[in-house]
Amino acid sequence: MNWSLSLPENSIPVNSYTMWGAATLSGLLLWLAWPVGPGAPLLFVAWLPLLWVEQNVPGKRAGLRFFLMAWWACLIWNLGTTWWIYYSTAAGSVVAILANAFLMTIPWMLFRITRKMAGDAWGYLSWVLYWCSFEQIHLNWEISWPWLTLGNGFAMFPEWIQWYEYTGVFGGTLWILLVNLGLFRLLLSGEKTTIKLTAGLIAGLSLPIIISYMIFFTYQEQGPEVEFVVIQPNVDPFTEKFINSENFIGFEQQVDRFIQLSEQKLTDDTSFLLWPESAIDGFFEESLLKAKEIPLNARVLQPDKLKSLIKIREFKRNRPKLSLLTGLTSYQIYKEASLASPTSRRDGEVYYDQYNTAYFAGDDGTFQTYHKSRLVPGPETMPYPKVFGFLSDLLVDFGGTSGQMGKQTERTVFFNSKGVGLAPSICYESIYGDFMAKYVRNGAHFIGVITNDGWWRDSPGHKHHLHYAVLRAIENRRSVARSANTGISAFINQRGDILQPTKFWDQDVLKSTLKANDELTFYSKHGDYIGRTAVWLSILVFLAAWVKKRIT
Fold first, then answer.
1. What's phi and psi for 529, nearest 5 deg?
2. In this structure, what are the phi and psi dihedrals at residue 547, rounded to the nearest 5 degrees?
3. Segment 196-218, tens digit of pLDDT
4. Dihedral angle at the C-alpha atoms of 173, 176, 177, 180, nearest 10 degrees?
5. Are strands 479-484 and 490-492 parallel, antiparallel or unpaired?
6. Is the pLDDT of residue 8 over 60?
7. Count of CB atoms within 10 A of residue 541's CB?
8. How far apart (Å, rounded) are the C-alpha atoms in residues 118 and 95?
9. Residue 360 in contact with residue 412, Cβ under 8 Å?
10. In angstroms, rounded to a whole number, what is the distance separating the alpha carbons of residues 157 and 212?
11. What CA–CA distance (Å, rounded) separates 109 from 292?
12. For the chain, counts of helices (H) and of strands (E)
């Protein structure tokens, strides 16, 4: 097969202006394609200009020039889609956007090296593999920021991607890359015979959509009905929520607001009530949270601190059939330094872990905790602290609890007395597909997202976050109940339809009946198998290209 993709002579002048213009166009197309607008189809052509740049960039320092142009394209994409990070911290947003754009150039440079070593056919195959490998690694290492995973770009079009229940978002990434590559070959190869290629492209573009629409319109939700209530208390995280805020609303008063809102929609049939992340911003010791009764000495020693917790427990006693999921801050003290975890903090001679916690008050009278485990680089965890410790004052605050946080390795599912399981997803965690699938493998019938999206103000950020939960619903065929302190609260059914979305910055309470599916999708069982496979194939392709270069 001829993979020579040279442009027809004199069709487009190859100079710095056209090179930089093409790189800029790729960045702009990716930005315009991203949620929450209707431009997702642009993803199928967004990489074409940069592919052309890679093949035609002139000069002795072509590699360096291409690196700068690829970084520029990715910078435009990152800046156009995630500029709202600025609302949390200006300096941190600069670091995050520049660094993520740089990381995105790595698969492009590896592709260029491979193409030079082994030729076009191996090279363009490697481009697909390297990008999928980049996304897989970016989901799982300590500097994880997978907000711009390509497959996320269809979050506004659930009717196009019902097959994510088999592939996850990596199926969308692969789809985008292959269509771009096919179009690039079709448009720029200069071949006279393009009928087969055109037919293949039409099929590759349309068949996934046709199949998805067929699934979308025939899908029947599975499982018995369960009643949920979620609240959106709308406590301003900048001026009202936290103790150092200018117009701080006391913790007791905040809990009063939560209870009053909840009572508006609760019925005797309500099984689960969700309050948002960091709803109670006290600092509670783990054993105290889990105790069935708060000890008298604790009530005497910490009367002010425990008032909000006592109110919650009294509220729950009046509704024994109800299970409550809420967010708070907790800590665990280690009696000996040798027992302290790698994430522990030190205060004098005391070692302790601080957690961004989901707190579950079950209908069986027990109390459980889950600790947020996908931590935001910067405010909640310092990635590779020996290398990046000097950046600690610049890193981004995305809301929730800040500082080095503890985490857990197991995905804890909260079950009520009827055996219905709820997956607690704290904020940022809901953008991780395989991570959430592990909850489902552990028995979750529903996904409960508790978050605080007001840090990003009225920007695309909180809208992205809502729509990414649609992807988790489709991947696992699990309904989602979403409680945002500020942002958008909503329900999402197993098909990915968003139900009863609240308005931004409005106080509200929602009630819905959702179905408790217990069947595992192919994706729920196998997770990001496409990404994992791409990593291994990338290694093999690069080694094969290196060997080919050596022996020829």
1. -65, -30
2. -65, -45
3. 888 888 999 999 999 999 999 99
4. -170
5. antiparallel
6. no
7. 21
8. 35
9. no
10. 10
11. 57
12. 17, 14
